[in-house]
Amino acid sequence: MRKYVALLLSVVTLLTLAACGSKDALSGTWSAELGADGVITWTFNGKGECTMENAYMKQKGTYTIDGDQLTVMLEAWSEPSTYTFSVDGDSLTMNENSGYGISGVFTKK
Question: Which of 20, 32, 46, 60 is disulfide-compatible with 106, CB 3.0–4.6 A?
Answer without folding.
Answer: 32
